[in-house]
């Protein structure tokens, strides 16, 4: 900020009409430039004194102390606004981190659930594949039974005949 810009902001500073960014630049310039600081103090003394006379209040005995206190209050306002801004950012970052963490847990559960379903499907597919090979053996067994059907039936008849004879023998006794 140049001296001419700083001088144009003297009255708005005294009347508390500067926004925080402009106020910060103005105060930095005032701290560095002794001429602008002296001019600000003169204007502050004049304008504050006239304002207090218009309001019919008692004039302070030490305008310099009032001026220094005003500068300190304005610097504290800027520092407090920065602290609040930093706190808001930290809270925002924490909220984003918490939301991200919770979302990642939800996504993890979804993915793990999907993987479990895929594993179950694969187990089912493995069962079908394993049994598919047994199906071929069953058809081989069916062929064997069909081929030897007559022999099996004869063996069955002989077995039934023997059972009938033993049953009749037991009944006679």
UniProtKB/TrEMBL annotation:
Keywords: Membrane, Transmembrane, Transmembrane helix
Keyword Membrane found: yes
Transmembrane segments: 90-107
Origin: domain of life: Bacteria
Name by which UniProt lists this protein: Putative zinc finger protein
């Amino acid at each position: 900020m140049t001296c001419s810009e700083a001088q144009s902001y003297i009255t708005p500073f005294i009347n508390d009409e500067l926004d925080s960014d402009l106020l910060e630049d103005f105060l930095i310039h005032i701290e560095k430039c002794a001429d602008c600081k002296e001019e600000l103090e003169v204007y502050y003394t004049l304008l504050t004194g006239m304002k207090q006379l218009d309001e019919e209040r008692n004039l302070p005995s030490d305008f310099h102390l009032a001026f220094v206190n005003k500068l300190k209050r304005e610097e504290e306002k800027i520092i407090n606004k920065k602290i609040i801004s930093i706190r808001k950012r930290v809270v925002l970052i924490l909220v984003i981190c918490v939301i991200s963490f919770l979302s990642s847990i939800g996504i993890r559960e979804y993915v793990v659930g999907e993987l479990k379903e895929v594993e179950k499907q694969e187990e089912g597919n493995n069962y079908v594949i394993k049994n598919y090979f047994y199906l071929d053996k069953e058809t081989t067994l069916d062929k064997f039974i069909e081929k030897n059907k007559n022999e099996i039936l004869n063996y069955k008849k002989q077995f039934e005949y023997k059972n009938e004879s033993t049953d009749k023998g037991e009944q006679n006794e």
